[in-house]
Amino acid sequence: MRIRFLTKAVLTAALLLPVAAGQVFAAAYPDKPVNMIIAFTAGGSSDVQARIMQKYWDKHVKQQWVFVYKPGAGGAIGFGEIAMAKKDGYTIGGINIPHLVIQAVTQKAQFTINDFDYICQVVNDPQAVAVRKDSRFKSAKEVFDYAKANPGKLKVGLVGPNSGHHLMYLDVQKKLGFPVTEVFYKGAADQNAALIGGEIDAMFGNLNDVMRSLEEMRVLALAAEKRNDFLPNVPTLREEGFDIVSDIRRAFVAPKGIAPEQLAFLRDVFKKIALDPEYLKDMKTAGQPAEYLDGEALFTYMKSLDADIKAAFAKK
Questions:
Q1: How far is CA 203 from the centre of its chain?
Q2: Quick one: 254 and 296 in the same domain?
Q3: Which of 222, 256, 280 is the last residue of a domain?
Q4: What DSSP string describes 253-287?
Q5: Is 207 domain-assigned?
Q6: What is the CATH number of the domain that holds 204?
Q7: φ/ψ (deg, to 5) at 234
Q8: In this structure, is residue 1 part of a structural domain?
Q9: Residue 231 forms part of a structural domain
Q10: C-beta atoms surrounding 155 within 10 Å
Q11: pTM to 2 decimals?
Q12: What are residue 251's DSSP bridge partners?
C-alpha cells in the first residue's frame, strides 16, 4: 500500500510539474535587463516617448531597459533588428506606423507585419500642414489653391520617402491635385530647419515635431479626425473641406514567437503604464499625443492599412 501511495504521489507531482514550472517562469520574467531597440536617432520623438515609458516601467519591473539605437532607412533597419532578434522575451522595440507597413510593402524589407508580436500602441500623432510664421499662407486652402494655380512652384518638405509623411502627400495628390515640388529630408529636425530657413514653403509633419518650433511656425490645419488638445484653435483638414486624415502612431512590439506568458506580462505592464495619470501628464508636457490601443486591436488596424498602402504606392 505504501508503494502504491508513493507511485500515485509521484505521478500527481509529474502531472502538476508543467503548470508549476510555467508559473515560476512567468513570475521570474524578466530576470535580466531587456533590450529596447529604437529605430531612430537618440533624442527624436520615438526616443523621447520611450524614455518616458521607461520611467514608469521602472515602477513595475526591477529589470531596466538597455536602449539600442538602430537608425536608418526610415526605421527599416531597426524594425528588421527587432523581427530577427532572439525570441526569448529580452529584446523588444518601438515601431512607427504606417512606416513599418509601407516599408514591408515598398522595399525589400527583412520583415512583414506578421513578424512581430504586438504589445500595444501608445501614441497617435496627427500630421500637420505647417508654414513659417511670416508666411503669406494663412490657411491650408490657400496652400492648396496656390499649388494648383502655380504648378511646381510650391516647395513642400517631407520626411521620407516611404514614410507616413509621404503617404499623406500621395493622398493629398490623389484627392485634391497637388502639383508641387516635394523635398525629402532625413528627419524632422532637418525638415523643421528647412522650413524656418526658407528653403521650403510648407511642410507636412508630425504634430509632436512641429510643437518644438511653434514660435517660428504656424500650423494651418491637422490631418486628424478631431481637433487636438495641444492646439485647440487649429482646425482639422476636414473642417476646412478636405477629406484627409493621416497620423503617425508609435507602438511597441517583440519578435514573433516569444512565450505567451512573456507577451501577456509585457502587455499587462505596458497597459498599466499607458493608463497611469502621471505618465499621461509627462506625455502632455513632452507634446506626445497619447492614445492607447491593445496589441490585438493594433494588429487589426495595421492589417487594415495594407491594401490602402499598396494602392497608394503602386502608382509611384
A1: 20
A2: yes
A3: 222
A4: EEETT--HHHHHHHHHHHHHHHT-HHHHHHHHHTT
A5: yes
A6: 3.40.190.10
A7: -90, 125
A8: no
A9: no
A10: 17
A11: 0.81
A12: 95, 121
132-164 per-position pLDDT tens digit: 999 999 999 999 999 999 999 999 999 877 888
pLDDT for 292 equals: 97
Phi first, then psi, for residue 224 (nearest 5°) are -130, 165
Q: Collapsing DSSP states into helix, strand and coil, what is residue 156? A: strand
Dihedral angle at the C-alpha atoms of 306, 309, 311, 315, nearest 10 degrees?
A: -150
Contact 279, 53 (CB under 8 A): yes
Reading the block at residue 184, the C-alpha cell is 525629402
Q: Residue 293's domain spans which residues?
A: 26-124+248-314
Could you give the angle at the alpha carbon of 167 between the alpha carbons of 150 and 128, nearest 5°?
A: 70
The model's pLDDT over 87-103, given as tens digits with 9 standing for 90+, comes to: 999 999 999 999 899 88
The whole-angstrom separation of Cα 174 and Cα 148 is 13
Verify that 41 and 130 share a domain, yes or no.
Answer: no
Examine the domain organization and report whether 157 and 291 are in the same domain.
no
Is the pLDDT score of 125 beyond 50? yes
Number of domains present in the structure of the chain: 2
Q: How many Cβ atoms sit within 10 Å of the Cβ of residue 17?
A: 10
H or E stretch at 293: strand 290-294
Q: Is the pLDDT of residue 169 over 70?
A: yes
Q: What is the pLDDT of residues 194-218, one digit of tens each?
A: 999 999 999 999 898 888 889 999 9
Question: Which CATH number belongs to the domain containing residue 119 in this structure?
Answer: 3.40.190.150
Residues in the chain: 316
Is 240 within a domain? no
* C-beta separation of 167 from 248 below 8 A: no
Cα 222 to Cα 129, 202, 204: the distances in Å are: 6, 13, 9
107 plus 160 within the same structural domain: no
* pLDDT given at position 197: 96
- Within 10 Å of residue 166's Cβ, how many Cβ atoms? 24
